[in-house]
Amino acid sequence: MADWNIKKPEGICSVCGKEFEPDEEFYAGLAEGEEGFERIDTCSTCWQDKRPETFYFWKTKMPRPEDKGKQKFLNDETMLEFLDKLEKSEEQGKINFRFVLMLVLVRKRILRYKDTFTKDGKDYWRLKITGQDRIVEVLDPHIGEDQIERLSENIGDIMLLEDE
After folding, report:
1. Model confidence at 138, in pLDDT bands (50, 70, 90)?
2. φ/ψ (deg, to 5) at 123
3. What phi and psi, each to the nearest 5 degrees, are found at residue 8?
4. What is the pTM of this model?
5. CA distances to 4, 28, 112, 116 from 137, in Å
């Protein structure tokens, strides 16, 4: 589960196969797959009628053709919510994913490193959310640079709101 291959948005509903029109709102989500998270995009109708089971989801819209090439990502608040949602997970792949998501948020200056500590024989990073009094603690899974790089690419693919 450590090396996920998450597809980029394809512009079609994963339930009915309908192609999204420019400016059409749809739901993007992460579903549990055989090898970890899988991104699924669902039109509003199928979301209401045949809503797929997701671990996390967000509402977005299909870009207009003239906006192609401009990459838009989830907002910082949504990324923090996703970090929180992964907090209780005990699956190694999700722990690794959460750690790399935390690194992305540090790079974006949404989280600020405070210190590290050890609890129950495990190392944790303590971080402050910029502009808030809230502190988050993230388990350090001690993964290698290659794995961090692969997971970072997957995070980029997940958080991308439009087709490339």
Report:
1. very high
2. -90, 140
3. -80, 165
4. 0.62
5. 24, 27, 11, 9
